[in-house]
Amino acid sequence: MKHGNSFSYLIYLILLIAFSSNADEELAMLTEELKEGAWKGMCTNESGSRRYKVKYHVSYIVEEEKKILQIEMVNLDLEPRPDFTYQLIDIDVKSETISFKIPRKHDMKSCELTKQEDSSYKGECHSDKAKNGRISQISMAQLLEEI
Amino acid sequence: MSENNNKKRDWVDVGVKLLTPVIVGLLIAWAGYVSNYTLSSISSRQESARLITELQIRREQAESALRKDVFDQTLQAFLLKKQETDSSIRGLSKQLLRLELLALNFGDSLSLSPLFTEFRRDLFLLEPGEEDDLSAFEDDKGELRKRLYSLARRVANNQVASLSQHGVSKLIRIPVPAYNAEVAKDCSLVLYEAQFPWPERIIQQSIGIYDDKNNLLLSDEVIKEMFKSDENRSVYIESLNEARGMELQRKPRYLDVKISDIDHCEKSAKITISIYKDGKVDLQDKENQPEEIPVDGLGDLSALSSQHGNYILETERSFKLDYFNFPIVDNTRLENNHRFAIVLDEFDLESKDPYIELIGIIFPSEYASLRDRPGMKEARNLLKSALNDEEDEEDKEKK
To answer: Does the pLDDT of residue B295 top 60, yes or no?
Structure first.
């Protein structure tokens, strides 16, 4: 029983180390992929008739010894600004794709963007309230200078 | 001989007698023709002038009738809101179209600010209806708000451009360094809770007696040291007066603006304008005169006035300024049949150095809205100055 206990503890430790190193690697990859700072982009409405300039702010915060990726998105073409500032949720970054949700006042947009050759991202968003399953276009590129 | 002579005389007499009526007749005919020609050309000219005038009047009447119809229908449609259609994005978009028609056609003669304010309130309170597309609702609201501001700015800019041709304007740039990402997210935060005095603070910052980091003037000792000499003081006051001086028709005035409570969401601010003119105040009557101008009041015209009595306050007004202030209609009466107006020109908080820009303008009262008729005294002064101008011109001609 005693041996069994210490064995399972050992396995737990091995797994913990493996996972934590995996998480560290993932985070390192993440920070490499999505650099902290200002990003810019465009997004369209569902009908594609309007294009809006957007700005993203990518940051990594430490919470309970864990680094968490945060992205804030601002639509620069609409007013008042606070009504069009969104804290993105369910962010998932993989080697070639980023997905997130934009929690808006009256709908939720789920977006998936794919990495382009120039390291920018382009993709589509689907609103849970969109009529006839229409989609909007979205893009994201790192900004070297603050706008 | 004498017979021959008599015969000759007879022929001459006969010739004269025959030719005289012919010549006279011809002369009369010629005079008749000339006078007839002159009269007909005069009358034809008069007829043409009458025709042109009549055409012009008819054209103006037709245009006025059209404008009246457009005005009646648009205003009626605007004011008689239909609950079912106007409580949706599409309804408000139509409402904004009517406001656009009113503002662009009658902006110079009507006070439209209440309609703009009411529309902004309606838009703020708008909730999605059955026919609204929820995925686009918020964006559409933002678009309408942007369209409203853009319309107001277009009307105000047109008016400023036309008034600037006859008046004198001043650009007032207020830096807003406190605006940052945190403030941008929160509409309840206002900028400049304490008043920002223009141009005082700008000059103080430029000569380094204002500490930008702590929002304080440098210590009294440091400033006193800087202004020990009268020369330094007068240079400071001169640069201030240069910044705030506005002269129209040889009447110099000085403008002071105090701005506070800048609302970055509503794009508005509280402002106090003070307009001073040159003149002598009788300081003997004033009790408790300050012996010396306090250091923080060095650029304050009211402090300078109470000390030296060189400036007289002509008018002082406090109000909320937003994009819905239109100079031709919303202005302040000044002496000498002048008007003062101030408009919000730019609200740029996204640039590296956030700022807001106002334009102050002094212009002759005849360019103000027609609804703002001059009072009896003002009308008399206008007549007097017109007569004086005429006399001056006559004197010049004689010389």
So the answer is: no
- Amino acid identity for residue B341 in this structure: A
Interface of A with B in 122-141 (CB under 8 A): 127, 129-131, 134
Q: Do the chains contact at B139 and A78, CB–CB below 8 Å?
A: yes
* CA B356 – CA B321 distance, rounded (Å): 12
Residues B111 and B193 in one domain: no
What is the count of structural domains for chain B?
2
- Using the CB atoms, write b or e for A85-119: b if 16+ within 10 Å: bbebeebebeeeebbbbbebebbbbebebebeeee
**B354: closest chain A residue by CA:** A147
Claim to verify: residue B266 and residue B328 sit in the same structural domain: yes
Residue type at B333?
R
Q: Which residue has the higher pLDDT, B388 or B255?
A: B255
Residue B313 and residue B266 share a domain: yes
Cβ B261 vs Cβ B176: under 8 Å: no
Write down the pLDDT at residue B220: 67
Question: What does pTM read for this prediction?
Answer: 0.75
Query: Which residue, chain included where needed, has tokens 């993989």?
Result: A94
Q: CA separation (Å) from B337 to B257, B293, B374, B379?
A: 22, 33, 8, 9
- Are B298 and B244 within one domain? yes
pLDDT in tens, A102-144: 999 888 999 999 999 988 999 999 988 877 778 899 999 988 7
- Complex ipTM value: 0.74
- Tell me which chain A residue has its CA closest to the CA of residue B188: A82
Q: Are residues B122 and B245 in the same domain?
A: no
Domain of B88 in residue numbering reads as 64-154
